[in-house]
Amino acid sequence: MHRRSVPALALWLAVAPTALHAQFAMDQPLATISRVATALYPTPLQPDPLAAERLGIRKAVGRSRWVEGAVIGGVVFGAAGGFLAAGFCAADDSAEGAATDGCTEEILIGGVAGAAVGGLIGGLVGSRIRAGPAEAE
After folding, report:
1. pTM check: above 0.70
2. Which residue, among 118, 117, 82, has the nearest Cα to 103 in the 3D structure?
3. Which residue of 28, 85, 109, 119 shows the fewest CB atoms closer than 10 Å?
4. How far apart are CA 68 and CA 73, in angstroms?
């Protein structure tokens, strides 16, 4: 125990003065806050140097139907997971939920798990389906 405490004490003595110095109240806190904010967010804000490249990549990649695929997959697999969980719960004679208050908890868990898996699969499938150009409004 003593061999471990010596390096820890040496580390604390090396770091403590700077950490303790930060705990003292500043004379002008608003000036300090202003200086920190100016260092973090220089004015005027510079334009993003990669904005043009990002726009070019988005145009080259094109649009896909991943959102529609995720929604459809989530709904279909969620309903299937709920029905599957209800069937397993009702078929088990020793299930406490089926005997007392039904299988609501099991159906919800099965539905949510099915929706998560279906949303992932549907999103992956939908990402491979290309959409037409964006409609101008």
Report:
1. no
2. 82
3. 28
4. 8
